[in-house]
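SAMPLE LOG
Freezer: B-3
Tube label: C17
Construct: single chain, 97 aa
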Amino acid sequence: MGEFMAGWFKFDEEIRSSVKVLAGDGLEPTSTATTVRYKDGAPVTSDGPFAETKEQLGGYYLIDVENLDEAIKVAGTIPNLPMGGSVEVRPVQVFEQ
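STRUCTURE (predicted):
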């Protein structure tokens, strides 16, 4: 685990020095999740993740780049990719008022 995390610490340092990182955090495992739903006019909570799945979100980076190509280039350097991991790249939705 030490070598795995060393790769992440190195990546984190590199990404923060190369692009504008607006936010980024690791997330606790899905076993720590609480799901909130609305039932009979009130919020109801349940232990566990929103959906049962083999994949889970381990963390996120919110970066400010010029375009999708730049975002994909950054995503391609994520340390868990060579180990069979995946990265989802999405733009932030901007709402006009």
